[in-house]
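Fold it.
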Amino acid sequence: MTKHFSQPDNPSITDFGHIFSPRNYRYFLASKYIDLAAPKVLDIGGYKSRADCLERFLDGVEYTSVNIAGGWYENEEIDIEYDGQTLPIKDNSFDFVVCVDTLEHVVSKERRKVVAEAYRVAKKKAIIVVPIDTSEESCEANYSSLASTLGFAIRPSIVEHLDRGLPSLGELKEYAGLFPHSIYLHTDRKLYWAIQNAMLVNSFAFGDQAIDLNQKIQSVSDKFLIDTEKSQPENDAYRAVVVLDKAND
């Protein structure tokens, strides 16, 4: 049963605390499985600004974002708007399709469609990077309890994690089962959430002065997570990378 946490009626940005996610690390995980020079990449759930995340790891990448209208981020732009169901894109149009920390924000009954569409429009591989539920303990619930205790609103992304549920490894195997695929486990769950919780505490202790501090934490944690990246045991992993490989179809 989902636990509901107190939330202001109309929370502002500062109501959530000054929390910054290691975004480059997430795209690094996707880039590990892209093995073509100057690839043409479609990012499901991405924004134009995310091109920079892939360009850090891939030379000459041709990046296109596709997303639904609106969202949590002000002033973000997308290349292609779609309905969240069927991509308005022909089969095999992009060398690689990536979907980075997006699938968990889709209601569970529609996730299979997202995976199938990613595979359809990919020429070589579709790569799904997604937080997973592999533990009895919910790090999102713990984070939300801490935020509520400190007087912060729960970030919209975390609300959706709690309300919609992270996919299990079994679910991902089911979604990918119709296609040639491999699944890799990444991200030390405890380390990742220790960093996020530290930013919450900094936000409470230092207020707006925590912005610079937490941005430095984001930068350092991004680099540390990338430099020390290794596969994780199932019970310790926070993310899975599902690689659907058309070369083996």
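The mean pLDDT is 92.
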